[in-house]
Write a sequence for this structure.
């Protein structure tokens, strides 16, 4: 049982969607940081486990504006992007701080029992006995396994996302069934 970044929540955009992305679900895959070099490249901090979503994207959306990708390359844990129409550091600076999004179709395929974080955030969590634990508010990677932060009427509950604890995930219903280890729940 694994989760997979993008680790930011899916954001439904409340603005007119550009023609090139109309009807598509945009997923945040990074944030633009600063211009790089003298040719208008922009440095992006990815929020994905791999750079495959960037590699598969011919268009990236910065804030509300789509840009055709001329080239992408890794750079010390970041991504450097050259975009059509952005040719100077001054133009690139205008994009700084923007969330970088791509069409959901550009995300890498998932394995069985693998989920993107945006699919899990907001999901309702119930125990195998029917107890409502609340909703997943965030996910923390720990190296060994991800930890789900579930906020409910009993406060925050931390659950490891491992087989045996996570029994069922229904992305269509937005529900997860868990069998928490002894001592993980308040009032246990």
């Amino acid at each position: 049982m694994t989760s997979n970044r993008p680790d930011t929540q899916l954001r439904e955009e409340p603005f007119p969607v550009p023609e090139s992305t109309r009807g598509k679900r945009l997923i945040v895959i990074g944030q633009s940081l600063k211009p790089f070099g003298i040719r208008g490249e922009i440095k992006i901090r990815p929020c994905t486990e791999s750079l495959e979503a960037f590699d598969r994207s011919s268009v990236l959306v910065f804030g509300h504006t789509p840009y055709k990708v001329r080239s992408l390359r890794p750079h010390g844990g970041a991504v450097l992007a050259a975009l059509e129409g952005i040719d100077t550091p001054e133009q690139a600076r205008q994009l700084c701080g923007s969330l970088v999004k791509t069409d959901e179709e550009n995300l890498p395929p998932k394995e069985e029992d693998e989920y993107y974080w945006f699919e899990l955030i907001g999901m309702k969590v119930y125990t195998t006995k029917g107890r409502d634990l609340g909703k997943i508010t965030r996910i923390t990677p720990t190296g060994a396994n991800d930890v789900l932060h579930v906020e409910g009427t009993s406060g925050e509950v931390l659950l490891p996302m491992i087989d045996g604890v996570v029994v069922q995930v229904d992305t269509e219903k937005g529900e997860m069934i868990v069998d928490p280890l002894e001592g993980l729940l308040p009032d246990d």
About this structure: The longest helix spans residues 89-93. Residues 5-20 have pLDDT under 50 and may be disordered. The helical segments are 52-55, 89-93, 117-120. The radius of gyration is 19 Å.
